[in-house]
Design the sequence.
C-alpha cells in the first residue's frame, strides 16, 4: 500500500479526486481527521490521507503531496518520506527526494500539452519508482474519462508512475 499524505484541509477536494482517479488501479481509501471514504472492498493499493500536519510516519511506502504548502510547516522534522511531490520549486525536504510537477519546463514532470481531456505529460529526468525501478525521460498520453484539473491529473499520474503502475510499453494511461 502506498500512503499519500496531502497537506492542508483546503486540499480535501483534491484528495477525494485523487482517490476517485486511483480507485481503478488497485483501490483507494480517503482519510482525513474527520472523514473516511472507502472506494474498494479489498485492501487498497492507495491510502490518501488529508491533514494539516503529520507528526509521525511509520508506513512502508509514503509520499508527501505539497499542493502549494511549505514543507517545513507541514510535517515533523523526523518524518522521512520515500518521495515528496511538490508543485513548487522546493529542492529539498530533509532526506526525502523531491519531484516537482507543474506546467513549467523546469519541472521534473510537466504537462507538455492538453486538449479536451487528453494530456501529454513529460517525464523530464530519470527517476526511480518506489520499488527502485528506473524510469527514463519519456512522454505519456494520459486520457481522463471526465474533466479534471491539471493539478489532480499530474498528482495522480505521478503516484501511478512511482507505484510502478504506468504502462512503460505503450506510454499511455487512462485515468
Sequence:
Amino acid at each position: 500500500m502506498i500512503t499519500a499524505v496531502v497537506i492542508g484541509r483546503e486540499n480535501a477536494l483534491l484528495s477525494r479526486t485523487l482517490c476517485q482517479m486511483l480507485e481503478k488501479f488497485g483501490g483507494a481509501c480517503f482519510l482525513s481527521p474527520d472523514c473516511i471514504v472507502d472506494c474498494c472492498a479489498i485492501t487498497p493499493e492507495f491510502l490518501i490521507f488529508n491533514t494539516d500536519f503529520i507528526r509521525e510516519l511509520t508506513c512502508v511506502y509514503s509520499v508527501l503531496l505539497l499542493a502549494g504548502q511549505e514543507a517545513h510547516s507541514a510535517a515533523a522534522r523526523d518524518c522521512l518520506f520515500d518521495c515528496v511531490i511538490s508543485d513548487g520549486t522546493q529542492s529539498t525536504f530533509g532526506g526525502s527526494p523531491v519531484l516537482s510537477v507543474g506546467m513549467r519546463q523546469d519541472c521534473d514532470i510537466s504537462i507538455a500539452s492538453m486538449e479536451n481531456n487528453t494530456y501529454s505529460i513529460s517525464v523530464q529526468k530519470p527517476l526511480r519508482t518506489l520499488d527502485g525501478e528506473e524510469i527514463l525521460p519519456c512522454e505519456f498520453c494520459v486520457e481522463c474519462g471526465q474533466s479534471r484539473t491539471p493539478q489532480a491529473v499530474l498528482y495522480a499520474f505521478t503516484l501511478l508512475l512511482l507505484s510502478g503502475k504506468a504502462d512503460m510499453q505503450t506510454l499511455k494511461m487512462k485515468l
Observations:
- The mean pLDDT is 86.
- The chain has one domain: 2-174.
